[in-house]
């Protein structure tokens, strides 16, 4: 019994050391990215919607910008790449969805435009808290940058994510996406 406890202690120590060294995530926990991206890790955006949803988007943008790997910069209505907005749609392709992202292009592998909808009536129906809704916005912004769905339990890119914020592997995936040529995926 005592011996087992010691072994467990060693195992935990080893795991901690690996994490502290910042070793690249293994395939089972890595956040995947697709073949397309923006030309640079920087896009201009406009937001529309109620002051509440502007707050949700602003908070999600602040979280991604704080990672240092990508920058969402306010644009103008005449000049912007990404539109962040809301919809009360509940049926068809929006059935039971919390949010959705549409990307245009890619042209030569590069996104040309993106549009994100937070689906306000579904979010209300399923009682998403403000935090949950920020996580949905962070997830959709992940798609805007080129990330795909992860199976890692703590990833913001988990399909139908509600509870997860941005993980280390999510940040690493953005870094890799913008250091990897278009046409290649993770
Ligand atoms: Zn998604």
From TrEMBL:
GO MF terms here are: metallopeptidase activity
> Signal sequence span per UniProt?
1-25
Q: What class of enzyme is it?
A: hydrolase
**Peptidase metallopeptidase domain spans which residues?**
34-180
InterPro entries linked to this entry: MetalloPept_cat_dom_sf, Pept_M10_metallopeptidase, Pept_M10A, Peptidase_Metallo
Say yes or no: keyword Transmembrane helix present.
no
Q: Which domain of life is it from?
A: Bacteria
Protein name per Swiss-Prot or TrEMBL? Matrixin family metalloprotease
């Amino acid at each position: 019994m005592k011996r087992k406890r010691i072994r467990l202690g060693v195992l935990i120590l080893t795991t901690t050391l690996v994490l502290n060294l910042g070793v690249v995530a293994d395939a089972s926990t890595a956040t995947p990215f697709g073949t397309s991206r923006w030309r640079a890790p920087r896009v201009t955006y406009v937001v529309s919607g109620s002051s509440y949803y502007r707050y949700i988007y602003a908070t999600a943008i602040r979280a991604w910008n704080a990672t240092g790997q990508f920058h969402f910069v306010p644009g103008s209505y005449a000049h912007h790449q990404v539109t962040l907005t809301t919809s009360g749609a509940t049926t068809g392709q929006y059935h039971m969805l919390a949010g959705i992202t549409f990307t245009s292009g890619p042209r030569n592998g590069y996104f040309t435009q993106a549009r994100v909808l937070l689906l306000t009536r579904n979010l209300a129906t399923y009682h998403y808290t403000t935090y949950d809704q920020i996580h949905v916005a962070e997830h959709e912004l992940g798609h805007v940058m080129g990330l795909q769905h992860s199976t890692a339990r703590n990833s913001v890119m988990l399909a139908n994510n509600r509870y997860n914020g941005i993980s280390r592997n999510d940040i690493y995936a953005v870094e890799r996406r913008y250091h990897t040529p278009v046409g290649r995926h993770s």
